Amino acid sequence: MKLSTNFTLAELIESETARKLNITEQFNPPEYIINNLTQFCHRVLQPLRDRLNRPIQISSGYRCPKLNKAVGGVSDSAHLFGMAADIDYNTKEEAIEIVEGLIAIGVKRIGLHKSFIHADTDPKKPSPAIWNYGKGTPKWVLDKRSEWVKLM
User: Fold this and answer.
1) Residue 73 in contact with residue 63, Cβ under 8 Å?
2) CA–CA separation, 39 and 31 (whole Å)
3) Axis-axis angle for helices 139-151, 92-104 (nearest 10)
4) For a surface tag, which of 48, 71, 72, 79 has the fewest beta carbons within 10 Å of its beta carbon?
5) What is the pTM of this model?
6) What is the dihedral sign for C-alpha 149, 11, 70, 33?
7) How confident is the model at residue 141 (pLDDT cuts 50, 70, 90)?
């Protein structure tokens, strides 16, 4: 099922962890989650892809409660509601391009990790916000963080 021009439901519910742990509900989200994912694709993922003019790789989209717990997600994660995605990157330049693209399209909640950029639109959480994920976050990310906060 297509959620936008370049994104499908299948890629936003995919989880190797859910498959390994036989968490079957991950692959059959309720209708309101599909609606939220569709909105997220139209507000965030598709505009980002169009801006970057290249495909982007999603490592985590929607997570059902069992999967969220299994991967150590926070109890009120935006992933639980279909309002978040983690976008993989391979190089510093690619990460900068993704973060600055997200800011340019109006995303106000961004998490920085050593291998992915988290974007979410959860209206119940503080915004604007840019945060990092622990000690594994590269120094260059921490150095750019204050600059990015000013752009929001």
Assistant:
1) yes
2) 12
3) 20
4) 72
5) 0.93
6) positive
7) confident
Give the C-alpha separation, 119 to 22, whole Å: 27
**Measured distance CA(18)–CA(134) in Å, rounded:** 24
Bridge-partner residues for 117, per DSSP? Answer: 87, 112
Please report which residue ranges of 16-128 form alpha helices under DSSP H.
16-21, 31-40, 46-52, 65-70, 92-104
Query: Tokens standing for 61?
Result: 């989209």
| Structure token pair of residue 2 | 């297509």
Both structure tokens of 125: 């959480």
**Both structure tokens of 149:** 């906060």
Residue 58's φ and ψ, nearest 5 degrees, are -95, 120
The torsion angles phi and psi of 110, rounded to 5 degrees, stand at -135, 130
Q: Summarize the confidence of residues 51-80 as an average pLDDT.
A: 96
The C-alpha atoms of residue 128 and residue 49 are separated, in whole angstroms, by 22
For residues 62 and 12, the answer to whether their CB atoms sit within 8 Å is yes
How far is residue 150's CA from residue 73's CA, in Å, rounded to a whole number?
Answer: 28
Q: Letter for the amino acid at 104? A: A
